Amino acid sequence: MTIKTFASRAAALLSVSALLASCSVGGFETVDASAPRPAWCGPDPAVIGFADGDGGNSWKRLNLAELRDELAQCSSVTDFIVTDAQGDTQKAISDVKSLGAQGVDALLVFPDAGQALLPALRHEYKSGVHVVPYRVSPGGTEGEEYSTFVASDFAEIGRLWGQWLIDSLPNSTGNVLFLGGPPANAQNMAVNEGLREAIEDHPGIEIIGDQPFTVTNWNPAQTQQATSTMLSRYPKIDAVVADFAATSIITAFQQAGRPLPLIATADVNGLSCQYEKLAADNPSFQLFTVNSQTSMGRLAAQHAVALATGGTPPESKTDIPVPFEDSISGTPSAPQCDPSLPEDALLSSSLTPQRIGEVLK
Q: In this predicted model, what pLDDT tens digit does every residue of 213-227 receive, in sequence order?
Protein backbone atom coordinates (compact mmCIF):
# COMPACT_ATOMS: atom_id res chain seq x y z
CA MET A 1 0.00 0.00 0.00
CA THR A 2 1.35 3.42 -0.86
CA ILE A 3 2.26 5.90 1.88
CA LYS A 4 -0.37 8.59 2.35
CA THR A 5 -0.79 11.66 4.50
CA PHE A 6 -3.03 9.99 7.04
CA ALA A 7 -2.75 12.73 9.64
CA SER A 8 -5.05 14.98 7.63
CA ARG A 9 -7.68 12.24 7.60
CA ALA A 10 -7.98 11.53 11.30
CA ALA A 11 -11.28 13.34 11.63
CA ALA A 12 -12.70 11.71 8.51
CA LEU A 13 -11.88 8.24 9.80
CA LEU A 14 -14.24 8.75 12.74
CA SER A 15 -17.22 8.99 10.40
CA VAL A 16 -16.36 6.09 8.09
CA SER A 17 -18.41 3.52 9.96
CA ALA A 18 -21.53 5.61 9.39
CA LEU A 19 -20.90 5.56 5.63
CA LEU A 20 -20.16 1.87 5.19
CA ALA A 21 -23.84 1.06 4.71
CA SER A 22 -23.63 2.61 1.24
CA CYS A 23 -20.50 0.68 0.28
CA SER A 24 -19.66 -2.76 -1.04
CA VAL A 25 -16.69 -3.94 1.01
CA GLY A 26 -14.62 -7.10 1.13
CA GLY A 27 -14.91 -10.51 -0.47
CA PHE A 28 -13.19 -9.51 -3.71
CA GLU A 29 -11.66 -12.48 -5.49
CA THR A 30 -8.95 -12.33 -8.14
CA VAL A 31 -6.98 -14.83 -10.19
CA ASP A 32 -4.36 -16.83 -8.38
CA ALA A 33 -1.05 -15.05 -7.77
CA SER A 34 0.65 -17.65 -9.97
CA ALA A 35 -1.47 -16.67 -12.99
CA PRO A 36 0.16 -14.63 -15.78
CA ARG A 37 0.20 -10.97 -14.82
CA PRO A 38 -1.03 -8.32 -17.31
CA ALA A 39 1.45 -5.51 -17.91
CA TRP A 40 -0.83 -3.06 -16.08
CA CYS A 41 -0.86 -5.29 -12.99
CA GLY A 42 2.23 -4.56 -10.91
CA PRO A 43 3.52 -6.48 -7.89
CA ASP A 44 2.44 -4.10 -5.11
CA PRO A 45 -0.79 -4.93 -3.24
CA ALA A 46 -3.52 -2.33 -3.60
CA VAL A 47 -7.08 -1.54 -2.54
CA ILE A 48 -9.15 -0.04 -5.36
CA GLY A 49 -12.18 2.18 -4.76
CA PHE A 50 -14.94 3.16 -7.15
CA ALA A 51 -17.18 6.18 -6.54
CA ASP A 52 -20.16 6.02 -8.91
CA GLY A 53 -22.30 9.13 -9.15
CA ASP A 54 -25.47 7.25 -10.08
CA GLY A 55 -25.31 3.51 -10.59
CA GLY A 56 -28.93 2.57 -11.16
CA ASN A 57 -29.27 2.32 -14.94
CA SER A 58 -28.31 -0.61 -17.14
CA TRP A 59 -25.20 1.12 -18.53
CA LYS A 60 -23.82 1.68 -15.06
CA ARG A 61 -24.68 -1.81 -13.84
CA LEU A 62 -22.91 -3.43 -16.78
CA ASN A 63 -20.00 -1.03 -16.41
CA LEU A 64 -19.56 -2.09 -12.76
CA ALA A 65 -19.64 -5.77 -13.74
CA GLU A 66 -16.95 -5.12 -16.35
CA LEU A 67 -14.85 -3.25 -13.78
CA ARG A 68 -15.03 -6.24 -11.44
CA ASP A 69 -14.06 -8.63 -14.23
CA GLU A 70 -11.06 -6.50 -15.20
CA LEU A 71 -9.80 -5.99 -11.66
CA ALA A 72 -10.12 -9.72 -10.99
CA GLN A 73 -7.37 -10.31 -13.57
CA CYS A 74 -4.83 -8.74 -11.21
CA SER A 75 -3.91 -10.70 -8.09
CA SER A 76 -2.37 -7.57 -6.57
CA VAL A 77 -5.85 -6.12 -6.02
CA THR A 78 -6.65 -7.05 -2.43
CA ASP A 79 -10.07 -5.36 -2.22
CA PHE A 80 -12.55 -3.41 -4.32
CA ILE A 81 -14.81 -0.94 -2.48
CA VAL A 82 -17.80 0.54 -4.30
CA THR A 83 -20.11 3.45 -3.48
CA ASP A 84 -23.20 4.70 -5.32
CA ALA A 85 -24.33 8.29 -4.78
CA GLN A 86 -27.67 7.57 -6.51
CA GLY A 87 -27.65 10.95 -8.23
CA ASP A 88 -27.08 12.95 -5.02
CA THR A 89 -24.22 15.40 -5.53
CA GLN A 90 -23.51 15.87 -1.82
CA LYS A 91 -23.40 12.12 -1.32
CA ALA A 92 -21.06 11.79 -4.30
CA ILE A 93 -18.67 14.22 -2.60
CA SER A 94 -18.98 12.35 0.71
CA ASP A 95 -18.37 9.03 -1.04
CA VAL A 96 -15.07 10.26 -2.49
CA LYS A 97 -13.97 11.43 0.96
CA SER A 98 -15.13 8.19 2.57
CA LEU A 99 -13.18 6.01 0.14
CA GLY A 100 -10.09 8.13 0.74
CA ALA A 101 -10.52 7.79 4.48
CA GLN A 102 -10.80 4.02 4.13
CA GLY A 103 -7.29 3.99 2.68
CA VAL A 104 -7.84 3.08 -0.96
CA ASP A 105 -4.68 3.24 -3.02
CA ALA A 106 -6.46 4.14 -6.26
CA LEU A 107 -9.87 5.68 -6.76
CA LEU A 108 -11.93 5.22 -9.92
CA VAL A 109 -14.60 7.91 -10.26
CA PHE A 110 -17.61 8.25 -12.53
CA PRO A 111 -18.21 11.96 -11.88
CA ASP A 112 -21.86 12.40 -12.84
CA ALA A 113 -21.84 15.59 -10.77
CA GLY A 114 -19.06 17.04 -12.93
CA GLN A 115 -17.03 19.93 -11.55
CA ALA A 116 -18.81 19.82 -8.18
CA LEU A 117 -16.57 16.83 -7.37
CA LEU A 118 -13.32 18.55 -8.25
CA PRO A 119 -12.38 19.83 -4.75
CA ALA A 120 -12.87 16.35 -3.27
CA LEU A 121 -10.88 14.71 -6.07
CA ARG A 122 -8.10 17.26 -5.64
CA HIS A 123 -7.95 16.61 -1.89
CA GLU A 124 -7.60 12.86 -2.32
CA TYR A 125 -5.04 13.28 -5.09
CA LYS A 126 -2.96 15.65 -2.97
CA SER A 127 -3.21 13.14 -0.11
CA GLY A 128 -1.55 10.45 -2.20
CA VAL A 129 -4.47 8.55 -3.74
CA HIS A 130 -4.22 7.73 -7.45
CA VAL A 131 -7.45 9.31 -8.71
CA VAL A 132 -8.81 8.27 -12.12
CA PRO A 133 -12.10 9.83 -13.26
CA TYR A 134 -13.51 8.60 -16.56
CA ARG A 135 -16.05 9.31 -19.33
CA VAL A 136 -17.49 12.46 -17.69
CA SER A 137 -14.93 15.21 -17.19
CA PRO A 138 -14.77 16.76 -13.71
CA GLY A 139 -12.90 19.76 -15.14
CA GLY A 140 -9.56 20.67 -13.62
CA THR A 141 -6.15 19.57 -14.79
CA GLU A 142 -4.66 16.10 -15.06
CA GLY A 143 -1.54 15.78 -12.94
CA GLU A 144 -2.62 18.62 -10.65
CA GLU A 145 -6.07 17.64 -9.39
CA TYR A 146 -6.24 13.97 -10.33
CA SER A 147 -3.88 11.39 -11.77
CA THR A 148 -5.33 10.82 -15.21
CA PHE A 149 -8.63 11.17 -17.05
CA VAL A 150 -9.87 8.36 -19.31
CA ALA A 151 -12.11 9.87 -21.98
CA SER A 152 -14.54 8.71 -24.62
CA ASP A 153 -14.07 10.13 -28.11
CA PHE A 154 -17.63 11.41 -28.38
CA ALA A 155 -16.79 13.32 -31.56
CA GLU A 156 -16.10 9.98 -33.24
CA ILE A 157 -19.71 8.97 -32.58
CA GLY A 158 -20.83 11.99 -34.58
CA ARG A 159 -18.41 11.18 -37.37
CA LEU A 160 -19.66 7.58 -37.55
CA TRP A 161 -23.29 8.70 -37.61
CA GLY A 162 -22.51 11.32 -40.24
CA GLN A 163 -20.76 8.89 -42.56
CA TRP A 164 -23.64 6.43 -42.27
CA LEU A 165 -26.10 9.19 -43.18
CA ILE A 166 -23.98 10.11 -46.21
CA ASP A 167 -23.96 6.48 -47.32
CA SER A 168 -27.60 5.72 -46.49
CA LEU A 169 -29.70 8.77 -47.38
CA PRO A 170 -30.70 8.77 -51.08
CA ASN A 171 -28.24 11.00 -52.94
CA SER A 172 -26.81 11.97 -49.53
CA THR A 173 -29.78 14.29 -49.09
CA GLY A 174 -32.33 14.64 -46.31
CA ASN A 175 -33.55 16.36 -43.15
CA VAL A 176 -31.88 15.02 -40.00
CA LEU A 177 -33.17 15.62 -36.47
CA PHE A 178 -30.47 15.56 -33.77
CA LEU A 179 -31.81 14.75 -30.29
CA GLY A 180 -29.44 15.30 -27.35
CA GLY A 181 -29.42 15.41 -23.58
CA PRO A 182 -29.34 18.50 -21.35
CA PRO A 183 -28.57 21.88 -22.93
CA ALA A 184 -24.93 22.38 -23.93
CA ASN A 185 -23.78 19.13 -22.29
CA ALA A 186 -20.18 18.33 -23.22
CA GLN A 187 -20.96 14.89 -24.65
CA ASN A 188 -23.48 16.08 -27.20
CA MET A 189 -21.47 19.18 -28.05
CA ALA A 190 -18.60 16.86 -29.03
CA VAL A 191 -20.95 14.57 -30.97
CA ASN A 192 -22.31 17.64 -32.75
CA GLU A 193 -18.79 18.70 -33.73
CA GLY A 194 -18.03 15.28 -35.22
CA LEU A 195 -21.37 15.03 -36.99
CA ARG A 196 -21.08 18.40 -38.69
CA GLU A 197 -17.45 17.71 -39.59
CA ALA A 198 -18.53 14.50 -41.34
CA ILE A 199 -21.32 16.08 -43.40
CA GLU A 200 -19.77 19.47 -44.16
CA ASP A 201 -19.10 18.53 -47.80
CA HIS A 202 -22.67 17.26 -48.25
CA PRO A 203 -24.96 20.32 -48.28
CA GLY A 204 -27.96 18.15 -49.08
CA ILE A 205 -27.96 16.89 -45.49
CA GLU A 206 -29.57 19.47 -43.21
CA ILE A 207 -29.65 19.29 -39.40
CA ILE A 208 -33.12 20.48 -38.46
CA GLY A 209 -34.75 21.27 -35.14
CA ASP A 210 -33.25 23.31 -32.32
CA GLN A 211 -29.56 24.06 -32.64
CA PRO A 212 -27.04 22.63 -32.06
CA PHE A 213 -29.41 19.83 -30.98
CA THR A 214 -32.95 19.39 -29.68
CA VAL A 215 -32.91 18.96 -25.90
CA THR A 216 -34.42 15.82 -24.33
CA ASN A 217 -32.45 15.64 -21.05
CA TRP A 218 -31.91 11.94 -21.90
CA ASN A 219 -35.42 11.24 -20.67
CA PRO A 220 -37.65 8.82 -22.63
CA ALA A 221 -40.85 10.83 -22.13
CA GLN A 222 -39.13 14.08 -23.09
CA THR A 223 -37.56 12.35 -26.09
CA GLN A 224 -41.00 11.29 -27.34
CA GLN A 225 -42.43 14.77 -26.71
CA ALA A 226 -39.53 16.53 -28.44
CA THR A 227 -39.85 14.21 -31.44
CA SER A 228 -43.60 14.84 -31.63
CA THR A 229 -43.01 18.58 -31.52
CA MET A 230 -40.52 18.39 -34.37
CA LEU A 231 -42.84 16.16 -36.40
CA SER A 232 -45.52 18.85 -36.14
CA ARG A 233 -42.99 21.49 -37.18
CA TYR A 234 -41.37 19.65 -40.10
CA PRO A 235 -43.39 17.80 -42.77
CA LYS A 236 -40.31 15.79 -43.75
CA ILE A 237 -37.86 14.11 -41.35
CA ASP A 238 -35.72 11.52 -43.08
CA ALA A 239 -33.40 10.53 -40.25
CA VAL A 240 -32.93 10.95 -36.50
CA VAL A 241 -29.68 10.74 -34.58
CA ALA A 242 -29.82 10.34 -30.81
CA ASP A 243 -27.75 8.73 -28.09
CA PHE A 244 -30.66 7.68 -25.89
CA ALA A 245 -34.27 6.42 -25.89
CA ALA A 246 -34.55 5.66 -29.60
CA THR A 247 -37.64 3.50 -29.00
CA SER A 248 -39.43 6.70 -27.90
CA ILE A 249 -38.61 8.16 -31.31
CA ILE A 250 -40.33 5.23 -33.01
CA THR A 251 -43.43 5.68 -30.83
CA ALA A 252 -43.67 9.37 -31.76
CA PHE A 253 -43.43 8.62 -35.50
CA GLN A 254 -46.05 5.88 -35.21
CA GLN A 255 -48.47 8.12 -33.30
CA ALA A 256 -48.03 10.82 -35.94
CA GLY A 257 -48.70 8.34 -38.73
CA ARG A 258 -45.38 9.19 -40.36
CA PRO A 259 -42.97 6.79 -42.13
CA LEU A 260 -40.30 5.53 -39.76
CA PRO A 261 -36.94 7.22 -40.38
CA LEU A 262 -33.35 6.14 -40.53
CA ILE A 263 -32.08 6.08 -36.94
CA ALA A 264 -28.45 6.36 -35.83
CA THR A 265 -27.88 5.83 -32.12
CA ALA A 266 -26.14 3.62 -29.54
CA ASP A 267 -27.08 -0.02 -29.22
CA VAL A 268 -29.84 -1.24 -26.92
CA ASN A 269 -31.59 -4.59 -27.10
CA GLY A 270 -35.15 -3.24 -27.13
CA LEU A 271 -34.45 -1.08 -30.16
CA SER A 272 -33.00 -3.97 -32.15
CA CYS A 273 -35.99 -6.12 -31.24
CA GLN A 274 -38.28 -3.30 -32.41
CA TYR A 275 -36.40 -3.23 -35.70
CA GLU A 276 -36.94 -6.96 -36.20
CA LYS A 277 -40.69 -6.53 -35.65
CA LEU A 278 -41.16 -3.42 -37.78
CA ALA A 279 -38.64 -3.59 -40.62
CA ALA A 280 -40.66 -5.71 -43.05
CA ASP A 281 -43.64 -3.33 -43.02
CA ASN A 282 -41.55 -0.15 -42.85
CA PRO A 283 -39.04 -0.13 -45.71
CA SER A 284 -37.87 3.40 -44.83
CA PHE A 285 -36.81 2.26 -41.36
CA GLN A 286 -33.07 1.53 -41.16
CA LEU A 287 -30.87 1.31 -38.10
CA PHE A 288 -27.23 2.05 -37.33
CA THR A 289 -25.71 1.80 -33.84
CA VAL A 290 -22.35 2.38 -32.24
CA ASN A 291 -21.26 0.35 -29.26
CA SER A 292 -22.42 1.71 -25.91
CA GLN A 293 -18.89 1.64 -24.46
CA THR A 294 -19.79 -0.04 -21.17
CA SER A 295 -16.37 -1.67 -21.35
CA MET A 296 -14.46 1.62 -21.22
CA GLY A 297 -14.28 1.21 -17.45
CA ARG A 298 -11.79 -1.57 -18.12
CA LEU A 299 -9.34 0.93 -19.59
CA ALA A 300 -9.82 3.21 -16.58
CA ALA A 301 -9.30 0.26 -14.24
CA GLN A 302 -6.05 -0.64 -15.97
CA HIS A 303 -4.75 2.90 -15.45
CA ALA A 304 -5.77 2.95 -11.79
CA VAL A 305 -4.29 -0.46 -11.01
CA ALA A 306 -1.06 0.31 -12.87
CA LEU A 307 -0.56 3.46 -10.83
CA ALA A 308 -1.36 1.74 -7.53
CA THR A 309 0.57 -1.50 -8.04
CA GLY A 310 3.62 -0.35 -9.99
CA GLY A 311 2.44 -1.75 -13.30
CA THR A 312 2.71 -0.25 -16.77
CA PRO A 313 -0.24 2.00 -17.68
CA PRO A 314 -1.83 1.54 -21.11
CA GLU A 315 -0.62 3.97 -23.76
CA SER A 316 -4.14 5.10 -24.59
CA LYS A 317 -6.29 7.26 -22.33
CA THR A 318 -9.22 7.39 -24.76
CA ASP A 319 -11.89 4.80 -25.54
CA ILE A 320 -12.84 4.94 -29.23
CA PRO A 321 -16.45 4.06 -30.15
CA VAL A 322 -16.94 1.68 -33.06
CA PRO A 323 -19.88 0.63 -35.25
CA PHE A 324 -21.95 -2.18 -33.77
CA GLU A 325 -25.03 -2.74 -35.96
CA ASP A 326 -26.00 -1.69 -39.49
CA SER A 327 -29.28 -2.88 -40.97
CA ILE A 328 -28.22 -1.88 -44.48
CA SER A 329 -24.72 -3.32 -44.81
CA GLY A 330 -24.94 -5.93 -42.05
CA THR A 331 -21.40 -4.91 -41.08
CA PRO A 332 -20.12 -5.53 -38.48
CA SER A 333 -23.52 -7.01 -37.65
CA ALA A 334 -27.17 -6.78 -38.55
CA PRO A 335 -29.37 -5.58 -35.65
CA GLN A 336 -29.12 -8.08 -32.79
CA CYS A 337 -32.22 -8.89 -30.74
CA ASP A 338 -32.04 -11.24 -27.77
CA PRO A 339 -35.63 -11.76 -26.55
CA SER A 340 -34.32 -13.57 -23.46
CA LEU A 341 -32.71 -10.35 -22.19
CA PRO A 342 -34.31 -7.13 -20.89
CA GLU A 343 -35.04 -4.30 -23.31
CA ASP A 344 -32.32 -2.18 -21.71
CA ALA A 345 -29.61 -4.82 -22.20
CA LEU A 346 -26.57 -3.57 -24.10
CA LEU A 347 -25.29 -6.41 -26.26
CA SER A 348 -22.13 -4.51 -27.21
CA SER A 349 -20.89 -5.16 -23.68
CA SER A 350 -17.85 -7.43 -23.54
CA LEU A 351 -19.78 -9.60 -21.07
CA THR A 352 -21.45 -12.75 -22.35
CA PRO A 353 -25.23 -12.63 -22.90
CA GLN A 354 -25.65 -14.96 -19.92
CA ARG A 355 -23.64 -12.63 -17.71
CA ILE A 356 -25.55 -9.58 -19.01
CA GLY A 357 -28.77 -11.29 -18.00
CA GLU A 358 -27.43 -12.04 -14.53
CA VAL A 359 -26.33 -8.44 -14.00
CA LEU A 360 -29.64 -6.94 -15.15
CA LYS A 361 -32.06 -9.38 -13.55
A: 999 999 999 999 999
